[in-house]
Amino acid sequence: MLQPIEFLLQLRSKLEFSRHRVAIILEGSDEWKLELIGQYLSRAGITNATKLGGNAYPSIELLSYKQGHQLLGGERQVLIYDDQDGFDANSFTASTGCLVGGGILFLFLDQKGASSSTPWLRDAFSTLVHVKQGELVSDNYPYSNEQALPDYSEQNYAVEHIQHVLSGHRKRPLVMTADRGRGKSSALGIAAAKMLRDKTARILVTAPARKSVEPLFEHAKRLLPEASVKNNSLVEHEDSSLSFISPDELLQTKPVCDLLLVDEASAIPLPMLIAITESYHRVVFSTTVHGYEGCGRGFTLKFSEWLNTHRSGWNLCELKTPIRWAKHDPLEQWLFDTFLLNAEAEALPANILSAEEGLKLKLISKVRLSQDRKMAQSSFALLVAAHYQTSPNDLIQLLEDESTNLINIEIQGVLVGCLLVQLEGGMEEKLVADVVSGKRRPKGHMIASTLATQFGIEKAASERCLRVMRIAIHPDAQRLGLGSKALASLNNLAELDFDYLATSFGVTSELYRFWLDAGFLPVRLGAKRDPASGTHSILMVQKDCKSDWFDSVTQHFSEQLISLLPETFANTDSELLGIILSGARTNLTYTQSINFRLIQNYCFGAVSYESVFWELYKAVNQYAISSEHSIPAIIVAKVLQRAGWQQVASSFGLTGRKHVEQQLKNEIALCLNLQCKVK
User: Fold this and answer.
1) Are 238 and 201 spatial neighbours (Cβ–Cβ below 8 Å)?
2) Which of 42, 453, 620, 621 to pair with 590, CA 20 to 30 A apart?
């Protein structure tokens, strides 16, 4: 038995030998913890330590308990997580990625805190080593007796492959996947530095957040000490450069480059990744398979399917060997087990999808979710594979939030999918009044609050809404209509009592068509793009809704959206807007008279666009609210969004105004069924 400080020093010596990491829970007064940590740092000679949450400690960096992501790419020998202010699973799991081999994660757990009130976490923490004030510590900790040295072979292999994308054949993208700590960012930075040093090259880096690629630039700068750095994201070396650009700006401006590096690609929607691949012929896609960013496996599954068809020469590079710590790291394994970061969907039994027994929905109770770990792993694996934003916080919310529910989709008792739903609304009159007036914005009532505030429909907040947050179908069972069938069956699930069914998501053409086919209608398109996905958020409500406000909201959608196109949605994809308008429902009639003969003369070539614009604008409006067919993208761009001639020509690959007008007239004649020969 050892005194706490002697135990920690002996433990550090063993951990440095094996390059492993562990988590230690300290139980005692704040004064005792401060003294013990201070002694440990001093006697071990450690200077790079960070504390998340709680009070400041001398000579230790202090961040909020929610700011763990700021440590991504950095390195620490000691990490302290204090949950007295709260517990954030995303921040917690992200922060551990900075802890190097030989490092210790110290946990200060408030007995009344969130991490202790959740049985799942309480059980997980009980398996860790506890060091208590006033007690000796057993020295029989199961140390690894094998010395571990860093293995850079996989990383060197990855660096060579990245360089080959620049020097090899075009249209052969590289996809690089890795768990945390495998040297992915280092490989990108090292390869970039070598290419900048050896040849003249302009390299662009894109990622959902500038912060996540800072380690890449740091590694490049380390190998190019003579290079200049501007705005913390540009490395210039002679006539070469390495610079950052957001995914949204990349696709809008399409700057020229010799090589494009796409980091944390799993957090970028598939349509954007496809657009990037089609626009740039030398691309490296890099993503984290596990960790804070969420789904890497779903990304590789869906994106590789597209690459197999359209870029058959693509290559995959997997980094499996950790560099920042050694294999079989105890802390990493504990994190994977606790937050289901390594949950993977098992293959479905043969012939299960052809079973005669129909699909069934099963509401999973919190008790069963906490006790049946295998079932929880299977369900969460599907959620992770289906959506790039699924994170450890989603697991904690699912475990402890009574309004968040997991619904399994089964065929003959076999899990083929699941739904994550949130019960909203049901607010009392006083709360509804506060929401409508802007005084309150209750958490977990996103759709109910939006309908009440943005449309002035107080009843939508007092009624009960069931919001579909995620829908996940097993990879082996996709494109068989199971998702739509499950959504239709929700209305018959007796355990959930609600008045209307709704959803909100970052809209793409494919997703919109899915929800439209599943019986949902659009009621609102968000004005701002999501910074991570680059998409607009759309709110849709199931058309079986019996609420008396539903018809007025859905009928209002088309006209309001059209009126906002020239300004609010001027830079939104024209084809997507045309598809959205075609799916909107309205019983409105357009009362303004339209001179179709003048429009016909324009198509003949006898009238200028400027002379016919107002008649054309009215006609397109009428078409939008009366036709089930989508408006051609070029009409949306020019007539509704009012883009300039050159902008339209550039967007549609045309040579100039004359070429644009020729195609525009063709589409107008077809849409409005005008009998004329276009000139």
Assistant:
1) no
2) 453
Helix axes 297-310, 270-279, angle to 10 degrees: 40
Buried b (16+ CB within 10 A) or exposed e, 455-491: eebbebbbbbbbbbbbbbbbbebbeeebbeebbbbbe
- The closest alpha carbon to 93, from 377, 288, 292, belongs to 292
DSSP code, position 480: S
Give the span between the Cα atoms of 386 and 374, in whole angstroms.
19
Contacts 24+ apart (CB under 8 A), 598-601: 599/668, 599/672, 599/674, 600/674, 600/675, 600/676
Indicate if the pLDDT at residue 341 is higher than 90: no
Q: Residues 534, 247: contact at Cβ < 8 Å? A: yes
> Residue 184: pLDDT above 70?
yes
Neighbours of 309 (CB within 10 A): 8
State yes or no: pLDDT of 50 exceeds 90.
yes
3-state secondary structure 315-326: EEEEECCCCCCC
Run of H or E including 529: strand 520-529
Contact in structure between 540 and 522 (CB atoms under 8 Å): yes
DSSP string, 594-650: --HHHHHHHHHTSS-HHHHHHHHHHHHHHHHHH-SSPPPHHHIIIIIS---HHHHHH
Pair of tokens at residue 24: 């230690």
Q: Within 13 Å and on the Cβ side, how many CA atoms surround 529?
A: 19
Please report how the helices 574-583 and 509-517 are oriented relative to each other, as an axis angle in degrees rounded to 10.
10
pLDDT at 537 over 90: yes
Residue 420, pLDDT score: 95
Number of Cβ within 10 Å of residue 64's Cβ equals: 14
Judging by DSSP bridges, how do beta strands 174-178 and 283-288 pair with one another?
parallel
- Residues linked to residue 203 through DSSP beta bridges, in sequence order: 242, 259
Q: What residues have CB less than 8 Å from 514, skipping those under 6 apart?
A: 483, 484
Alpha carbon distance 3, 368 (integer Å): 41
Let me know: does 666 contact 678? Beta carbons within 8 Å. yes
Do residues 207 and 172 make contact, with C-beta atoms less than 8 angstroms apart? no
